[in-house]
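User: Structure tokens for both sequences below?

Assistant:
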Amino acid sequence: MTPPRFAFPQEPYLSSRFLLWSRPHAEHAQEELQRKLFPLARHALYYGLKSFRIGQGDEVLVPAYICTAAVDAIRACGAVPVFFRVGRDCSHDWEDAQRRISARTRALLVVHYFGFPQDLQPARELADRHKLALIEDCAHVLHGEIGGKPLGSTGDASVFSWRKFLPTLHGGELVIRSEEAARPEQIRPSSWAELKTLKRLLDMRVAYEGGAWIESLLQLPADVLKSARRMASRSAQPASPELQQAESSGFDLKTERMALSRVSRFVLEHSDVADIAAQRQRNYQGLAERLSRIPDVRPLFPALPENNCPLHFPVFIGNTGGAHRLLRELGVPATAWDGVRPSCIPEGSFP
């Protein structure tokens, strides 16, 4: 019997159902002092660290289950990531974090894994006790709260990644709430990103809702854009020493990639986040009900916390090695962070 083939979108795509034409996107618009949009969340984290004057030789406490993009952003500042333990339920081990604090420790990163909230009270207490900048990694959070407070509102700074939820090519955000932080550096807008972003957005629409003529219409200007970029790269000025240091860590800070396009900003500001969150919550509940019938599949969070909208549905799948790769072969967008965890963490050191 031929196995089923699924057709789940691998990324968000544009749908008029989830667009608003008058009300702007207003998530997390309460008491923050500064907000800045970037192409990617890793750029937001980089500039967040720089705002707290974290640099060469400083240490940043980082949970050991982490994507290498976050580590690259820390290293691009010249800082050193110091890893601490994470439980099998993804809870942070605050006692282990406490033991790893030194005279050089300047910041503490808290990760809301998959969009599920961490207990922020011990994090806040630890940061205050040792005068550390507390940074919330909300890259997997569309909407959520803990103790009646929105995720991202407890830290001195927080980082979001809207492109994971919304049909934008780019879309990271830095929110700073500490009066002690310096204003993030001004980034220059890019004239290159507009057509590329629009084409990507329409390509995704074509892939799942049809309309191939749109793709053909945009192909010629896209080819012209590529040609112009190649010519510009040949005449580009040498990068600054700071930029060269950032890129040597595997972190890309090329100026032309550092601005959020107007197309991405429009989608970000006009997405019906409440409706998107409600649909994703229904999807989560539907998955929870169906997966409960399958032996050896155990959700990390069987019940969705109230008022939370995560990015993923995390599960343990028996003892099947590489189960996520088997699912991907069937068209199911599954991942185990294989290939994106930092190589600097010795194998077996944080089981």
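Moving on to the next sequence.
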Amino acid sequence: MIMKEKLPHNMIIFAGSGSSRLTKKICEYLNVQQGQCQLIRFSEGTLFVQIDENIRGKDVYIIQSTSNPANDNFMELLFMIDACKRANAKTVTPIIPYFSYAKGDKMDDARVSIRARVCADAIESTGADHVVFLDLHAQQIQGFFSIPVDNLHALPILSKSLREKRIKNPVIVSPDVGFIKQARLFAKALDCSLVIVYKERVAHDENAKVINILGDVNGKTAIIVDDFIASGGTLIEAAENLINRGALSVWASVTHGLFTKNAKERIQNSPIEHIIVTDSVETESQPVSDKIQIVSIAPLVGEVIRRIHNGDSISELSCTP
């Protein structure tokens, strides 16, 4: 995607502290000046946000992933939306590359909070006019909002990177039945077959048990595709099972690389040969392992901002490999 036209002057892009490096790349792609704002964290743990320039009548875009520290980054996003509305911005569009509470999309047990719905209500009531996500863990979260919502997909960027690797005899592996639809798109993009890992989660934690693998991986390069990786435990267990089933090697292609706990050591010592992730999460200044390659979503997000601002369609950017 190449920029062919300048954007009008009545738009401005602000960076939340959870996406400062990504925002810089997006502004470079769009050839626009990044908006100036300040964030102060007081000693008792509260946050102070101030917009440092005139945004009256402008269309504002706030780039903020709610990765670790998730609650601080989410509250910062709310305060930024509120500050922009109080500064008489024409519209405010938060762009949330990684939405940490997307896993809390339903009541999967008695007396639990639907956390994603609470967050959606907060974003909307604070004054957002439009929200953009990237690879939401649960698509139905879009229905929690009464304002426009777009859910982008990193599939075109990740599949392009995989094709450039010229992997021999690949097979796409869906990590569970819930990711089959996206996994099929990856398989179509790489013109290869699809295998499904059946796993079971018995507690409210980051661990799931691999029960079975449906499909043939013997003599193939298995590529596990998923929306996020946290501690890496489930991914590594799936990789070990794939090797035991005859896979020659195991790769992974994941949108959000959280890499929590001891993920670095676990991945480095695992049978996973290579992992491709996007820069939607900035908890690490450098890749946590030399097995990990980071590809940028800045061109995708930049093009989405340009099209939203000009009133053009973005569906072709978010759905096709």
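User: Anything stand out in the second?

Assistant: The mean pLDDT is 91.
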